[in-house]
Design a protein that fits this description.
With about 220 residues, the protein is α/β, with parallel strands linked by helices. It contains nine helices and seven strands.
Protein backbone atom coordinates (compact mmCIF):
# COMPACT_ATOMS: atom_id res chain seq x y z
CA UNK A 1 0.00 0.00 0.00
CA UNK A 2 1.34 3.44 -0.95
CA UNK A 3 0.72 6.16 1.60
CA UNK A 4 0.07 9.53 0.07
CA UNK A 5 1.56 12.54 1.79
CA UNK A 6 -0.93 14.98 3.18
CA UNK A 7 -0.97 18.22 1.23
CA UNK A 8 0.73 21.12 2.96
CA UNK A 9 -1.64 23.47 4.73
CA UNK A 10 -1.62 26.88 3.13
CA UNK A 11 -1.45 29.37 5.95
CA UNK A 12 -3.22 32.70 5.77
CA UNK A 13 -0.76 35.47 4.82
CA UNK A 14 -2.86 38.19 6.40
CA UNK A 15 -1.83 39.79 9.69
CA UNK A 16 -3.85 38.57 12.66
CA UNK A 17 -4.41 40.32 15.96
CA UNK A 18 -5.10 38.26 19.08
CA UNK A 19 -6.71 40.86 21.29
CA UNK A 20 -8.56 41.39 24.54
CA UNK A 21 -12.19 42.18 23.75
CA UNK A 22 -11.94 45.36 25.87
CA UNK A 23 -10.53 46.88 22.67
CA UNK A 24 -13.08 45.28 20.35
CA UNK A 25 -15.03 48.52 19.63
CA UNK A 26 -11.84 50.36 18.65
CA UNK A 27 -10.34 47.56 16.57
CA UNK A 28 -13.61 46.81 14.80
CA UNK A 29 -13.93 50.47 13.84
CA UNK A 30 -10.37 50.61 12.51
CA UNK A 31 -11.01 47.53 10.36
CA UNK A 32 -14.44 48.70 9.20
CA UNK A 33 -13.10 52.10 8.15
CA UNK A 34 -10.17 50.54 6.28
CA UNK A 35 -7.48 51.80 8.65
CA UNK A 36 -6.31 48.29 9.54
CA UNK A 37 -6.18 45.37 7.12
CA UNK A 38 -6.10 42.54 9.66
CA UNK A 39 -8.05 39.58 10.93
CA UNK A 40 -9.24 39.81 14.52
CA UNK A 41 -9.43 37.12 17.17
CA UNK A 42 -10.82 38.29 20.50
CA UNK A 43 -10.32 36.73 23.91
CA UNK A 44 -13.20 37.46 26.29
CA UNK A 45 -12.46 40.45 28.53
CA UNK A 46 -14.26 38.83 31.46
CA UNK A 47 -11.31 36.47 31.97
CA UNK A 48 -9.56 39.48 33.52
CA UNK A 49 -10.90 38.51 36.92
CA UNK A 50 -8.35 35.67 37.03
CA UNK A 51 -4.79 35.66 35.63
CA UNK A 52 -4.88 31.90 35.16
CA UNK A 53 -8.00 32.18 33.00
CA UNK A 54 -6.39 34.91 30.90
CA UNK A 55 -3.27 32.82 30.33
CA UNK A 56 -5.21 29.65 29.54
CA UNK A 57 -7.39 31.33 26.96
CA UNK A 58 -4.70 33.52 25.40
CA UNK A 59 -2.62 30.36 24.93
CA UNK A 60 -5.55 28.66 23.19
CA UNK A 61 -6.03 31.65 20.90
CA UNK A 62 -2.33 31.83 20.02
CA UNK A 63 -2.06 28.11 19.35
CA UNK A 64 -5.07 28.30 17.04
CA UNK A 65 -3.73 31.38 15.27
CA UNK A 66 -0.23 29.98 14.75
CA UNK A 67 -1.72 26.98 12.97
CA UNK A 68 -3.56 29.16 10.49
CA UNK A 69 -1.42 32.27 9.95
CA UNK A 70 2.00 32.67 8.45
CA UNK A 71 3.73 34.52 11.25
CA UNK A 72 2.49 38.11 11.24
CA UNK A 73 0.68 37.73 14.55
CA UNK A 74 0.32 40.52 17.10
CA UNK A 75 -0.73 40.01 20.70
CA UNK A 76 -2.88 42.97 21.73
CA UNK A 77 -2.48 42.73 25.49
CA UNK A 78 -0.68 44.99 27.92
CA UNK A 79 2.46 44.29 29.93
CA UNK A 80 0.41 44.17 33.15
CA UNK A 81 -2.51 42.05 31.93
CA UNK A 82 -0.99 38.82 33.24
CA UNK A 83 0.82 40.15 36.30
CA UNK A 84 3.45 42.64 37.41
CA UNK A 85 6.58 40.71 36.36
CA UNK A 86 6.50 40.74 32.55
CA UNK A 87 4.45 37.55 32.36
CA UNK A 88 2.66 38.71 29.19
CA UNK A 89 5.94 39.65 27.52
CA UNK A 90 7.34 36.21 28.31
CA UNK A 91 4.22 34.56 26.93
CA UNK A 92 4.61 36.46 23.66
CA UNK A 93 8.27 35.45 23.48
CA UNK A 94 7.37 31.82 24.17
CA UNK A 95 5.04 31.74 21.17
CA UNK A 96 7.31 33.84 18.96
CA UNK A 97 4.78 36.63 18.42
CA UNK A 98 5.02 40.40 18.80
CA UNK A 99 3.19 42.11 21.65
CA UNK A 100 2.03 45.71 21.55
CA UNK A 101 4.07 48.22 23.56
CA UNK A 102 1.47 49.18 26.15
CA UNK A 103 0.86 48.61 29.85
CA UNK A 104 -2.81 47.69 29.40
CA UNK A 105 -5.79 48.40 27.17
CA UNK A 106 -6.27 51.93 28.50
CA UNK A 107 -2.60 52.69 27.91
CA UNK A 108 -3.06 51.45 24.33
CA UNK A 109 -5.93 53.93 23.88
CA UNK A 110 -3.58 56.70 25.03
CA UNK A 111 -0.88 55.58 22.58
CA UNK A 112 1.03 53.00 24.63
CA UNK A 113 4.57 53.20 26.05
CA UNK A 114 3.23 54.12 29.48
CA UNK A 115 1.49 57.33 28.41
CA UNK A 116 -1.44 56.60 30.73
CA UNK A 117 0.95 56.75 33.68
CA UNK A 118 1.94 60.27 32.66
CA UNK A 119 -1.69 61.35 32.32
CA UNK A 120 -2.53 60.05 35.81
CA UNK A 121 0.76 59.70 37.66
CA UNK A 122 -0.93 59.62 41.09
CA UNK A 123 -3.48 56.97 40.04
CA UNK A 124 -6.42 59.00 41.32
CA UNK A 125 -8.58 58.50 38.22
CA UNK A 126 -10.16 55.55 36.48
CA UNK A 127 -10.35 55.82 32.70
CA UNK A 128 -13.44 54.16 31.26
CA UNK A 129 -13.74 53.21 27.61
CA UNK A 130 -16.73 51.37 26.14
CA UNK A 131 -15.02 48.02 26.70
CA UNK A 132 -14.10 48.81 30.30
CA UNK A 133 -17.65 49.90 31.12
CA UNK A 134 -18.97 46.67 29.61
CA UNK A 135 -16.44 44.72 31.68
CA UNK A 136 -17.71 46.23 34.94
CA UNK A 137 -21.35 45.83 33.85
CA UNK A 138 -20.74 42.11 33.36
CA UNK A 139 -18.85 41.89 36.65
CA UNK A 140 -21.70 43.50 38.57
CA UNK A 141 -24.22 41.12 37.02
CA UNK A 142 -22.01 38.16 37.93
CA UNK A 143 -21.49 39.33 41.51
CA UNK A 144 -25.22 39.95 41.95
CA UNK A 145 -26.04 36.46 40.66
CA UNK A 146 -23.64 35.07 43.27
CA UNK A 147 -25.39 36.96 46.05
CA UNK A 148 -22.54 39.42 46.62
CA UNK A 149 -23.70 42.65 48.25
CA UNK A 150 -23.67 45.79 46.08
CA UNK A 151 -21.47 47.45 48.70
CA UNK A 152 -18.67 45.06 47.78
CA UNK A 153 -18.87 46.19 44.16
CA UNK A 154 -18.90 49.87 45.16
CA UNK A 155 -15.89 49.36 47.39
CA UNK A 156 -13.80 48.42 44.35
CA UNK A 157 -13.86 52.10 43.35
CA UNK A 158 -13.34 53.60 46.81
CA UNK A 159 -9.71 54.62 46.18
CA UNK A 160 -10.31 56.80 43.13
CA UNK A 161 -11.43 60.41 42.89
CA UNK A 162 -13.48 60.00 39.76
CA UNK A 163 -14.07 58.54 36.33
CA UNK A 164 -12.85 59.93 33.04
CA UNK A 165 -14.80 58.64 30.04
CA UNK A 166 -12.66 57.98 27.00
CA UNK A 167 -14.88 58.48 23.95
CA UNK A 168 -13.15 56.42 21.28
CA UNK A 169 -16.05 55.48 19.02
CA UNK A 170 -18.35 58.51 19.24
CA UNK A 171 -20.67 57.20 21.93
CA UNK A 172 -19.97 59.46 24.90
CA UNK A 173 -23.61 59.87 25.92
CA UNK A 174 -24.16 56.11 25.89
CA UNK A 175 -20.98 55.62 27.94
CA UNK A 176 -22.10 58.18 30.50
CA UNK A 177 -25.55 56.61 30.82
CA UNK A 178 -24.17 53.09 31.24
CA UNK A 179 -21.55 54.25 33.74
CA UNK A 180 -24.20 56.02 35.81
CA UNK A 181 -26.29 52.83 35.82
CA UNK A 182 -23.46 51.03 37.59
CA UNK A 183 -24.31 53.12 40.67
CA UNK A 184 -20.74 53.21 41.96
CA UNK A 185 -21.18 56.51 43.85
CA UNK A 186 -18.08 57.80 42.01
CA UNK A 187 -18.47 61.04 40.08
CA UNK A 188 -17.76 61.38 36.38
CA UNK A 189 -15.18 64.15 36.15
CA UNK A 190 -15.03 64.59 32.40
CA UNK A 191 -15.32 63.03 28.97
CA UNK A 192 -12.35 63.07 26.62
CA UNK A 193 -12.97 62.59 22.92
CA UNK A 194 -9.91 60.56 22.07
CA UNK A 195 -10.84 58.51 18.99
CA UNK A 196 -9.00 55.44 17.70
CA UNK A 197 -5.91 57.00 16.13
CA UNK A 198 -3.67 56.16 19.09
CA UNK A 199 -4.76 52.53 19.03
CA UNK A 200 -4.03 52.40 15.31
CA UNK A 201 -0.50 53.71 15.78
CA UNK A 202 0.26 51.22 18.56
CA UNK A 203 -1.01 48.35 16.39
CA UNK A 204 0.83 49.50 13.25
CA UNK A 205 4.11 49.72 15.16
CA UNK A 206 3.67 46.15 16.39
CA UNK A 207 2.70 44.94 12.90
CA UNK A 208 5.84 46.54 11.46
CA UNK A 209 7.92 44.60 13.98
CA UNK A 210 6.03 41.39 13.19
CA UNK A 211 6.73 41.84 9.48
CA UNK A 212 10.45 42.33 10.21
CA UNK A 213 10.53 39.23 12.37
CA UNK A 214 8.70 37.23 9.70
CA UNK A 215 11.27 38.21 7.06
CA UNK A 216 14.13 37.13 9.33
CA UNK A 217 12.63 33.68 9.91
CA UNK A 218 11.83 32.98 6.22
Amino acid sequence: MILKEKPAVNKNKKTCLVACSVLEPELQRLVKEGNLDVDLIFVNKNFHVDYSLIEQNVRKALEHTLKHYEGKIVLVYGDLCLGQDDEMKRLATEYGVVKIDALNCIDCIFGGKGKSEVVDSEHKLMFMSTGMIDFFKDMKIQLTSQGVAEAVFKNMFSCIEGFVILDTVDNSEECRAELEKLNTSVRIIETRKIGVENVKLVILEAIEQAVKNNKVTH
